[in-house]
């Protein structure tokens, strides 16, 4: 799992890092808007795909994520319960 996460991280951050290194050494800077937007999109995709990747590859992450979404409450089994109505008669003594 670590190899996949690191490889995906390196692949998605490569365009931005390439742009930074190129602009550091080049005499004329490369500032095309479409490439800047592409680099930002790749970085955002990297952040968004990490939870999906962890969920797909780790059972422990899935269990912890479910526990987090349920606010720490233990999941109750889906057992049907019977509800009965109890009526009580109240006796009032008028001889007070």
TrEMBL record:
PROSITE patterns: G_PROTEIN_RECEP_F1_2 (PS50262). Keywords: Membrane, Receptor, Transmembrane, Transmembrane helix. PANTHER family: THYROTROPIN-RELEASING HORMONE RECEPTOR (PTHR46061). The keyword Transmembrane helix applies. Receptor for thyrotropin-releasing hormone (TRH). Upon ligand binding, this G-protein-coupled receptor triggers activation of the phosphatidylinositol (IP3)-calcium-protein kinase C (PKC) pathway. It comes from Trichonephila inaurata madagascariensis. GO terms for molecular function: thyrotropin-releasing hormone receptor activity. The lineage of its organism: Eukaryota, Metazoa, Ecdysozoa, Arthropoda, Chelicerata. The keyword Transmembrane applies. This is Thyrotropin-releasing hormone receptor. Residues 1-54 form the G-protein coupled receptors family 1 profile domain. Belongs to the G-protein coupled receptor 1 family. The chain crosses the membrane at residues 33-57. It is found in: Membrane. One of its GO terms (cellular component) is membrane.
């Amino acid at each position: 799992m670590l190899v996949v996460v690191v490889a995906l991280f390196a692949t998605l951050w490569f365009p931005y890092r390439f742009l930074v290194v190129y602009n550091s050494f080049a005499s004329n800077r490369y500032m095309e808007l479409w490439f800047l937007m592409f680099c930002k999109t790749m970085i955002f995709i990297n952040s968004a795909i990490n939870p999906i990747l962890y969920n797909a590859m780790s059972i422990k992450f899935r269990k912890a994520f479910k526990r987090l979404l349920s606010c720490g409450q233990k999941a109750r089994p889906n057992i049907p319960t019977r509800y009965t109505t109890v009526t009580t008669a109240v006796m009032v003594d008028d001889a007070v």
